[in-house]
Amino acid sequence: MSRSTDTDVRVGVFHPGTQHSHETALAFQQAGALAWYATSIFYDPRRWPYNVVKFLPPGARGRLEYEFKRRHHPDIDPSLVRTFGVWEWVERLSMRAGLRMMEHHANEWGNRQFGHQVAALAARTSVDAIWGFDTSSLAAFDDVRGRGIRCILDQTVGHPRVWNRILTEERCLVGPDFDPYPLPYPEADMQRAEREMELADRIVCGSTFVRDTLVESGVKAEKTCVIPYGVPEGAFSGRETPADREGLRVLFVGHFGLRKGAWYLLEAMRRLSHLRGLTLTIVGKQTVPDRFFAPFGDRIRRVSHVSRNEVRQVYQNADVFVLPSLFEGSAITVFEALSSGLPVVTTPNAGSVVRDGVDGFVVPIRDAGALADRIATLYEDRRLRAEMAMQARARALEFPWRRHHQELVRWLSSWAN
Question: Which of 192, 239, 296, 338 could be a cystine partner for 300, CB 3.0 to 4.6 Å?
Fold first, then answer.
């Protein structure tokens, strides 16, 4: 599972959930530097409680196996995995049941207890560094202070104070009735996030947008570095031949709501209602009230969920991917769209690797006019669309997870030594 050591540093990676922590752990495992990977849930069909799934009826078994496999990576050595804590289970179940208050408390309490357990693990395994993720690393970082263990924070989203500012502005612009779901961070949560950043020796960001929000909020730039994410090699592919149909099929994948710029995408679609054959497919959770979709009829198709096995086909069936996000870290869906050969229309705040005018367009946030203009350009100019599709695919090939792994190891080795 591992190879000869590329760095002398021994690192423990931890996350009570997943995000891209599997890839981080795998990077250091492949370099022979991973001491352990700590998480709450890691699927192993040979162990309790996963080994009882085989006795369930086929339908229930299939659903549970699909859910569990999201918490698994086939290339991570099981002997390096440490699992503890039941609060992640409580949080997941609360989220599925719509119990937001219970979900919040389970997340908050669980992260704290998980962090204490990670610190104890670090103390008894003689690691040089621990690598945690935002909102779940404070307790661990605090507990290992003074023990000579370096703390690295993987900041997956922008600074919470910047989000609060954007959200306040947005409520004034679009009104309180459009997607009531997103809430501002409470002051106590922001202070915890800032303390987490303060305790970190270094902060790794997935995009320049994330780094810029940290610097704007008082984090020293020299404490940060930017290492872009990636996509699995071979998981997505472009169409063999460009689509020759009339019209344009626009795709959005993700949580369709205020934070992702949903209001501006709907407004752009309204302005382009005269374009024959222009459609929008939305895949993912949606918290915008139904009445905002009523004027569009069948021009907008909404799909709440597709399995990972179906996602590839979703991208294949589209012509253009649009993500007018107001606040991100670095949206993995953009990498997937580029890898599928889709021109991408997005914003700087999406934290993407899209090059304006090359493999898509980058427009200012909250600019429905610019958004509509770029979509119209891709609708009218099929030659440009085909060129951008080729560039998009080539751009994605520059960012396999393998590159992310190599950059993580190279950065840690150069910094720690």
Answer: 296
